[in-house]
Amino acid sequence: MKALFLSFESWTTRIAMGLACLMLAVASGLAVFQVITRFVLQQPAEWTEVLIRFSLIWMVFLGIPMAFRQGAMVSVDALYRAVPTHLKRILDAIVALAALTLMLIILWWGYDYAVRGSVQTMAGLESLSMFWAYIAMPAGAVFAIIAIVANYIDPRRMELETAQ
């Protein structure tokens, strides 16, 4: 069961990473297009600004789970270093529970925010609902929950080390 979940987590991390890279490419491409239309053609394409913001929002929320999994999130490990080895697993459980609680709150509030924001649009691209920007919060939270559980199940897989 552990191996199956870690395989699933690895697969979902690759999906999140691929989507985050796609969103970065979209934002970068649209930014270049925006510069050309604004400064070269003197006719700015205002709709690109909205899509750049949407892409960056998605990129950030899809990047959070990868940071969790790699151990790249900001942490204070003074307590972790101070506790005896046999208590570190208990501290891991407390930290995982706190992180899961935070992600469940983001999942709940993010979904509620997306539903409520579905009637909103952005200036410059009125045909696109704000739902598509706001739903990045719960989507990122789902990927983060998977990463947090995977870190708790197998903490040795974290790729980065904390600063010494």
From TrEMBL:
Main location: membrane
Keyword Transcription regulation: no
One function term, GO molecular function aspect: transmembrane transporter activity
Domain of life: Bacteria
GO biological process: C4-dicarboxylate transport
Transmembrane segments: 50-68, 89-111, 131-153
Location in the cell: Cell inner membrane
PANTHER family noted in UniProt: 2,3-DIKETO-L-GULONATE TRAP TRANSPORTER SMALL PERMEASE PROTEIN YIAM
Subunit structure: The complex comprises the extracytoplasmic solute receptor protein and the two transmembrane proteins.
Function: Part of the tripartite ATP-independent periplasmic (TRAP) transport system.
Membrane-topology annotation of the record: Multi-pass membrane protein
UniProt entry keywords in alphabetical sequence: Cell inner membrane, Cell membrane, Membrane, Transmembrane, Transmembrane helix, Transport
Residues covered by the Tripartite ATP-independent periplasmic transporters DctQ component domain: 29-154
Cellular component terms (Gene Ontology): plasma membrane
Name of protein: TRAP transporter small permease protein
Family from the record: Belongs to the TRAP transporter small permease family.
